[in-house]
Design a protein that fits this description.
Blueprint lengths: L2 E11 L2 H12 L2 E5 L3 E6 L2 E7 L8 E6 L4 E5 L1
Parallel strand pairs: 1-4
Antiparallel strand pairs: 1-5, 2-3, 3-4, 5-6
Protein name: VOC domain-containing protein
Pfam families: Glyoxalase
Organism: Pullulanibacillus camelliae
């Protein structure tokens, strides 16, 4: 299998508001949607999601696209 592209990144964070500020100011990410526990960005064409989580386990992954367009998630 060969990876043909990246679909999205999802990161668990403990401070959602602080993380939003970080991704906006450091990476220039455009905030698309925010609610109480999640935030979604456009990061120059790449989808970035943040999940606010106080306790473990955390769900963080990178989703890639293989040649048939199926999503393949790799947990970190």
């Amino acid at each position: 299998m060969q990876i043909k592209g990246l679909n999205h990144f999802l990161f668990s964070v403990t401070d959602l508001d602080k993380s939003i500020t970080f991704y906006q100011h450091i990476f220039g990410a455009k905030l698309l949607v925010k609610d109480r526990k999640t935030a979604y960005f456009d990061l120059k064409g790449l989808w970035l999601a943040l999940n606010g989580e106080d306790d473990m386990p955390r769900h963080t992954h990178i989703a890639c696209l293989e040649h048939w367009g199926k999503e393949l998630c790799a947990n970190l």
